Amino acid sequence: MSRTRVRFAPSPTGYLHVGGARTALFNWLLAKHSGGRFVLRIEDTDSKRSTAEFLDAILEDHRWLGLAWDEGPEIGGTAGPYFQSERADTYAPLVEKLLNESSAYKCFCSPDELEDRKSGSSQEGRDWKYDRKCATLSREQSAEYEAENRPFVVRFRIPDGTTRFDDMVLGSVEVDNRELDDLVIARSDGTPTYNFVVVVDDSMMGITHVVRGSDHLSNTPKQILIAEALGTEPPTFGHLPLVLGSDKQVLSKRRGAVAVGEYRRRGYLPEALVNYMALLGWSSGSEQEFFSLDELIAAFDITKVSRKAAAFDPEKLAWMNAQWIKRLSVSERTARVVPFLVAASLVSDSPDEEELAELERIVDLIDDRLKTLADIVEHASFLLADDIVFDNIAVDKVLTKPGSVDILNDLCEVLSDAPDFEPETIEELTRNLAEKRGVGVGKVIQPARVAVTGRKVSPGFFETLSVLGREKVLARLKTASELAATLTTE
RNA sequence: GGCGCCAUCGUCUAGUGGUUAGGACGCCGGCCUCUCAAGCCGGUAACACGGGUUCGAUCCCCGUUGGCGCUACCA
User: Which domains does chain A have, with CATH numbers?
Assistant: First the structure.
């Protein structure tokens, strides 16, 4: 009956990183797998650190990854508002309700007092829980203190007993309530704290399943207890293992390299990142390693999520990215590569049909050599720029070798007489020339490649020349031959 | 320190009370070849340790060790 409703609740105080994105992805998959809804809620109560720029980036990252939200910023929904900063007035009455029902109490202990008792309680100063000094304050006393204008916080009264819940990934989890602190739910300035706000928001938004990082595991019993005190059904929880960096430390916001936007800028495909993230801590049980978003929706099962923290491996992501690029059709690959060429000023802002056709030939030529979309720039620059840039080492080691000048001149001559400029024709002429000179074809190709591309490595030589076109090839051979002549005589 | 979670190749993982412990990345070697990629073939490498339970444990139980998380009037 009740549809699955999940939420992802980022705070716009930083960029979305791979760990957070994976949490969003798993939430999204859980919802989509069961035809449910994915809600995006923005936790922007920290107005000092929240910025519009971060918010935009986070939304853009979600769009780019393909994780469309069913309710949230820009599109709204029936359970809004979706910005926590706009929900401020919903909390006070609920705090009041808990107070009236004695599920919460006012605590007049000042931070200094607390600090004193904390360090006094044990020499090590650890394992401190609030000593419940104010838990037994009578209403009269409480009212009296308040009349004296003494500042207070509101604490939740943790009931006796144990709290148990079935975690979708961890299984049954049980905690002795004695381990729990009478946590503050409203600060002395009246604002509610995280653990309270989340419970209220999730409840009011009808969230049925909460999937989050296991760093929240110890909050869960508190939130369940608060939900129960509020008279609402707690959601079902699922705690994902943390994502670690290559150094085995938890992924942190500070490392720019793991920001989702960073991967986009570096020319990673969203398909690859999604595929990689899905396999970080989850496995379908089969040996399938490539999954589209749709395939993930079909195969995803949160109970198969690993309980073990997983290390993020940039190498494997890079490999996966290359694999996904290979799978793109030439026209699709071309379309994706254009923005990178535009950014490098190698093509006009909005290439026309003709330019696109030319680019497709180039992309086809480069073939499987792209590991990222951004690689197109280094691979295609010699094809698109008017002037080539010679690699010094290539010139040194190849172009200035004895005989290079002759070879270049001969090839130039042969090619100018070619009946057409198809790869097959070029190959035949080149091989003939090599044979005539009594050398391997490589001996001809090596200097010619440097002459035409400026480098020692390039896509297939004959195809490269064909794509470049006779005019450019002959001109470059001539220029290089002259350059080689000057360099060798010196 | 307390509480909690976790433990299969370097990394991501599959797996079963009896398997040559499987796959993927990486790395190494070979093939292909005009270079570089890609591709193909082969190799490298793991059940943390100690007790149980059992005819038999990588698998079940306990402990040890180790890793990580939480331990705020942050979220």
Answer: 5-82+243-311 (3.40.50.620), 85-240 (3.40.50.620), 329-384 (1.10.8), 392-489 (1.10.10.350)
